[in-house]
Amino acid sequence: MTRLIFLLLLALPVPSLAEMYDAEYQKCNKLTTVGIVDCVGVATKNWDRRLNDSYRALMERSEVEQQAPLKATQRLWIKYRDSNCAFYAYGPGTIAQIHAAECMRAMTKARTCELQAANNMEGQVDSECG
């Protein structure tokens, strides 16, 4: 079980810099540092709500044997996302706030899109997922 979870974590998509600063971020980029962080935070909350909806839907349609690994993977993913974005938060200067906020948004979006694709056998996702 631990090996399976480890392998699943290795397969998780990590947003590249291009994904981190996509069109959704660019809508916020014309503001002050505080404004950018707030704007990106609003987008993150939206993606987080969608993430939770996608996770619940996938849990409901998954086989009983799949539910425990999915739950464990989701918990580990949250720890990973939070630790990964903390790296950016502790960077130099006030720009670190923007990088950390954008990391949270981009990673949450990527995970949401991944769960949506897993929930739809054909891999269909919202248009915002690309």
Which characteristics define this entry?
130 residues; mainly alpha; 6 helices; 75% helix; globular
Fold topology:
Layout: H1 2-11, H2 17-20, H3 23-26, H4 33-61, H5 64-89, H6 95-119
Helix pairs in contact: 1-5, 4-6, 5-6
Short description:
This protein is mostly helical and 130 residues long.
Give the termini separation: 32 Å
Q: List the uncertain runs.
A: 4-14
Helix content: over 70%
Number of strands: 0
**Average residue-wise pLDDT:** 86
Secondary-structure element string:
HHHHHH
Radius of gyration: 15 Å
**What does the largest sheet look like?**
none
Structural class: mainly alpha
Helix count, DSSP H or I runs of 4 or more residues? 6
Our estimate of the beta-strand percent is: under 5%
Task: Assign an overall shape.
Answer: globular
Protein architecture, described:
The protein is mainly alpha-helical. The chain has a domain of 53 residues. The protein has six helices and no strands. Helix 1 packs across helix 5, helix 4 packs parallel to helix 6 and helix 5 packs antiparallel against helix 6. The protein is globular and about 45 Å long.
